Amino acid sequence: MAYFALEYELVDNFPDLRAPYREQHLGLLRNLHDRGDVVLAGAFADPADRALLIFAGADRSVAESFAEQDPYVVNGLVKRWGVRLWTVVVGN
């Protein structure tokens, strides 16, 4: 098993714009977390201009699939996103 970091660059005023899509976004994440595919996920604060989601799995496909269907991405709240292999040196 490997870890993959899904990084989002968010639009200006993201916290003000996310409300219509938040429950669907969180529902998708909760399902993936319950399956063990998502380890941690959240937006950075002050400023809320980026988000980081950590996936666990054999490859990056689950993270990429999530991003492609995430309502934040689909509805233009994410300027750019990318998935990177994350090498963990301390922790599980």
Structural class computed from helices and strand pairing: alpha+beta
Q: Which word captures the global form? A: globular
Q: What's the total number of strands?
A: 4
Overall average pLDDT: 97
Strands, helices and their partners?
Elements: E1 2-10, H1 14-17, H2 19-35, E2 38-43, E3 50-57, H3 61-69, H4 71-74, E4 78-86
Antiparallel strand pairs: 1-3, 1-4, 2-3
Can you offer a commentary on this structure?
There is one protein chain. The protein is α+β, with helices and mostly antiparallel strands. Helices cover 37% and strands 35% of the residues. The chain has helices at 14-17, 19-35, 61-69, 71-74, and strands at residues 2-10, 38-43, 50-57, 78-86. The chain has a 4-stranded antiparallel sheet. The radius of gyration is 13 Å and the shape is globular. The N and C termini lie close together (11 Å). The model has no long low-confidence stretch (mean pLDDT 97).
